[in-house]
Specification:
four-stranded antiparallel β-sheet, 8 helices, alpha+beta
Length: 397
């Protein structure tokens, strides 16, 4: 099937976000999206920063349902559909807002970008030799396939059905995560653990509890320094780096691969599903659970090993520990977190019986989170197998 083609600038309005300048900006504070908040098909809306916007800028830099948010730099072209995820959100200069005209379906345009990104079809519009960008004039020049609107809508409906299921799973995971963290806070911060009514307090802590260092209950296992020369296309083993450790989620897609495990690599660098990972460089203190098989641990990411798996995950996902780790981080160009110094952080370690009880209650929650994440992986794979067939017209809708 042959479809016509059209430049994006002819079928959509594009607008670059506001420059971040806290000294010159005026107006009221509003949360805003930056490049780091946009993933392929979703947004990270935790701990959004604030910037001043004047009243006449609110519409210019505001978002509506169906707007496509496209990264200008970092990974140019990475995008997601805004669905009124939060009210009053604005966007920063690192992002483009694409608002399609009546002749286009916003979902179709998103899936076209997703398909183009997977094929590197957008690379021709990038500028910069080291750090890639897609300026506004280049974005408007992007040539997209232009089927009839009826076909666009059908393609959008078919593919968005998968993404709706993915979103539902993500919402369930968030609720499970919140439940686990509530229990952690209730038991170990508010000290309302089972049996607290009859437990005596000695030296400021419940009887049987002790002030100890983190490394008394958690081992920090460092990753292996893989050589880029060993990377191959479509290798069996996938290398997990700091970019794969997101804030509470594991990115198992954007990875380099190798065909063989290096002989000198420690055994602990072979990751198992459910392993707890900690980022040590850049955005330090991010924690996630491994989802999937055949992953290997790279340097600057630590695996947290403990007999108390659920407790360890909740401890390192807690706000208090995140603050402690960021206070420890150092480095002029980028933050670096020392596993040794992190292990020396003092915490109140509960008694073994309380830790065992916590594991029995919270570990099933974590296992359910892993199951839902595996379902998300399968849904994405099914969508991505269908994507090229629909976008090329090989399958008629």
């Amino acid at each position: 099937m042959s479809w016509s083609k059209v430049k994006l600038g002819d079928v959509a309005e594009t607008n670059l976000g506001k420059m971040l300048d806290q000294h010159k900006n005026r107006g009221d504070f509003h949360p805003y999206l930056a490049n780091v908040n946009v993933r392929w098909g979703s947004f990270d809306l935790e701990n959004l920063p604030l910037m001043k916007f004047e009243s006449d800028e609110l519409d210019r830099f505001g978002l509506r349902y169906g707007d496509l948010i496209v990264c200008e730099g970092g990974e140019p072209g990475r995008c997601a559909i805004w669905k009124e995820n939060l009210p009053g959100i604005k966007f920063q200069k690192a992002l483009h807002r694409v608002r399609v005209k009546d002749c286009m379906d916003y979902r179709y345009v998103f899936y076209w970008f997703l398909y183009a990104g997977k094929r590197h079809a957008l690379d021709q519009y990038f500028t910069g030799s080291t750090i890639k960008h897609m300026p506004a004039d280049k974005l408007r020049q992007v040539v997209i396939d232009y089927p009839p609107l009826k076909i666009q809508k059908k393609i959008g409906e078919v593919l968005s059905a998968y993404d709706n299921l993915i979103e539902n799973n993500q919402k369930q995971i968030k609720l499970l995560e919140e439940a686990a963290q509530r229990l952690y806070k209730e038991w170990f911060i508010d000290l309302r653990f089972p049996g607290h009514e009859t437990t005596k307090i000695k030296n400021g802590v419940p009887e049987g509890w002790n002030i100890k260092s983190v490394n008394s209950v958690v081992d920090f296992l460092s990753g292996y320094a893989f050589k880029s020369g060993s990377f191959v296309d479509s290798g069996k083993y996938k290398i997990v780096t700091i970019k794969n450790v997101q804030d509470g989620s594991f990115d198992g897609d954007n990875v380099s691969t190798v065909d063989e495990i290096p002989t000198k690599m420690p055994n602990h660098c072979v990751l198992e599903e459910g392993d707890v990972l900690l980022s040590l460089t850049g955005n330090v203190g991010r924690v996630c659970l491994v989802v999937g098989d055949d992953y290997l641990l790279n340097q600057r990411v630590a695996k947290l090993k403990s007999h108390y798996h659920a407790y360890t995950y909740c401890l390192f996902r807690s706000k208090d520990m995140f603050v402690e780790m960021n206070n420890l981080a150092n480095g002029a160009a980028q933050q670096n977190l020392s596993p040794v110094r992190t292990g020396e952080i003092k915490i109140t370690v509960p008694s073994e019986s309380v830790l065992d009880d916590f594991e029995s209650v919270v570990m099933p929650i974590i296992q359910q989170m892993i199951i839902l994440n595996k379902q998300i992986v399968r849904l994405k794979q099914a969508r991505d197998r269908l994507l090229p067939k629909l976008m090329s017209g090989e399958i008629e809708v």
